[in-house]
Amino acid sequence: MTTLAVIVFILVYVGMALGRVPGLAVDRTGVALLGLIVLLASGDLTLDAAGRAVDMPTIALLFALMILSAQFEQSGFYGFVAERVTHAARNPRTLLALLIAVTGALSAILTNDVIAFAFTPLICSGLLGQKLDPRPYLVALAGAANAGSALTLIGNPQNILIGQAGGLDFWRYIAIAAPPVIVSLAFVYGAVALTWKSSLAASSSDTPSAPVTLDRFQTAKGLIAIAALIVLFLTPLPRELGALAVAGVLLLSRRLSSREMIGAVDWHLLLLFTCLFGVTAAFAETGLAQEGLQGLAEAGFLPQSLSVMLPVTLASSNTIGNVPAVILILKLLPGLPDGVLSGLALLSTFAGNLLLTGSLCNIIVAERSQASGARLSFADFARSGIPMTLASLLTAALWLWVTGYMPL
């Protein structure tokens, strides 16, 4: 039984690294689900134990935020913003800066994966219409979505997990994260501007596009919902309950179908989380993880210092992915100090900008852009991703050390 749990755990995380099963049309979510099914069928994990392993507050908070994002999608807000960004600036470098600023700000509130999914085809359409090379802007979109999402505990899935697991204070975390996030967004601009000089030097040839319809009432409703959410975060009410309350109010609409709103939820991501919670719990029950951690602790290699945390997050985020890596770390190392958890949120998010496979957000941009007629290759992303990530990680590590949040 123990042997099977270990084998399934290894195979699932290898699948997370590969992104799929070779020869089969099975993606990361499918890999995690198949692993959980094997554990349940073998008896290594019961349904009750699998249910207890799931962090329901995290799942509920992520679901509620997806409903909030669906409000903006249904109102035409995303299309309106993307159209204004791509046509407001005739200077490509100004356009690049505007795209990074808008994407970073929205990702901090509405999660990076959602922004990447909504913006990519719209940005591609606008740039191709202006006869511009979309690749540097797509890299900037992904980079800014990741970097900007590190600003809050609701900006990306891994930060939601960390914030819920550690009970981190929402506003205190923003105070910690704001300086390195702002600097990281500047690095995104600098890396793209330096590595895509020729593409950014090209002049645009604007082709008029169909105007985007914006439902101002529904957009205002979404903005009020964000304001309400922020107010609720100031109260003792658990974040997931406040977010669910806001989502419930948004579903009470005479004009936006609840079926469409709920259909906009990324159920694949929620299922991935659920399955990984179960698979990791089964592995933890073997006791092997605890023995390994004890050995690492004796050797001084636990990721509670920057010298260990930085390479661990960089390697794991670009192999198994930052979300699975964070789930694993939180399960195997419960009770980490607030400063270490804040460092984990920042470093794991910034590390996702290194390679195209570093985060789900990057993959979303690549897949959505290809479907829109613009191919973003692994090499295209790496030429900007590597310098922006290394600079961001070093800056974040220096900030965490100087401020005393994490030891060197």
Q: Give the amount of beta strand, in percent.
A: under 5%
Q: Residue-averaged pLDDT, rounded? A: 85
Distance between the termini: 40 Å
Report the biggest beta sheet as strand number plus sense, adding barrel if it closes: none
Written as H for each helix and E for each strand, in order along the chain, the element string is HHHHHHHHHHHHHHHHHHHH
Low-confidence stretches: none
C-alpha geometry: globular
Please tally the helical runs, counting DSSP H or I stretches of 4 or more residues. Answer: 20
Gyration radius, rounded: 21 Å
- Helix content percent band: over 70%
- Based on DSSP secondary structure assignment, what is the total number of beta strands? 0
Quickly count the domains: 1
Structural class, by secondary structure, is mainly alpha
In short:
This protein is mostly helical. Helix content is 76%, strand content 0%.
Summarize the SSE layout with pairings.
Elements: H1 2-18, H2 28-42, H3 47-53, H4 56-75, H5 77-88, H6 92-110, H7 112-129, H8 135-149, H9 157-166, H10 170-195, H11 197-201, H12 216-233, H13 239-251, H14 258-263, H15 267-284, H16 288-299, H17 306-332, H18 338-351, H19 360-371, H20 378-402
Helix pairs in contact: 1-2, 1-15, 1-17, 2-15, 3-15, 4-9, 4-12, 4-13, 5-6, 5-7, 6-7, 6-8, 6-10, 7-8, 7-19, 8-10, 8-19, 8-20, 9-17, 9-18, 10-20, 12-13, 15-17, 17-18, 18-20
